[in-house]
Amino acid sequence: MDDTPQELTTLVGREVYSNNGVFVGEIEDIRLDLDAEVVNGLALGELNPDLFADYDTGRRGVIVPYRWVRAVGDVVLINDVIERLKTDDETDAALA
Fold it and tell me: Which residue intervals define the domain PRC-barrel in the entry (predicted)?
C-alpha cells in the first residue's frame, strides 16, 4: 500500500471490492482507535445483496476490519473473506 498520508474523509464514498473483483459495499464511515491512532475498521453501506442476503446486518451495514484491506486507490480492495464465508456456508449446507 502507498504510505503517503491521506485524509480519512477521502475514503468515505469509495466502493469496496474483494480481491476477486466482487463488489462488497460503499464506505460510509471509518472506525478509529483513538488511543492507538489507527484505523481499525471500515463501515460499509449499500451492500451487495448477493453477499449478505443470508446475514442479518440490521439493514445498516457491516464493519470490515481494516486488516482485511489490501489496497486503497480509486476503490478499496479487501481480502476475499466475505466470499469465502458465503462459500463455507454453502458447503456446510450441502454436507448436512
Answer: 8-81
Residues sharing a CB contact under 8 Å with residue 49, sequence separation 6 or more, in sequence order: none
For cell 489490501, the residue is 70
Question: pTM above 0.90?
Answer: no
Give the C-alpha separation, 12 to 6, whole Å. Answer: 12
- Give Cβ neighbours of residue 41 (< 8 Å, ≥ 6 apart): 30, 31, 63, 64, 65, 66
Q: Say if residues 64 and 76 touch (Cβ distance below 8 Å).
A: no
Residues 6+ apart with CB under 8 A from 15: 23, 25, 26, 27, 75, 76
Residue-wise burial string across 72-85, b where 16 or more C-beta atoms lie within 10 A, e elsewhere? beeebbbbbebeee
Give the C-alpha separation, 37 to 39, whole Å.
Answer: 7
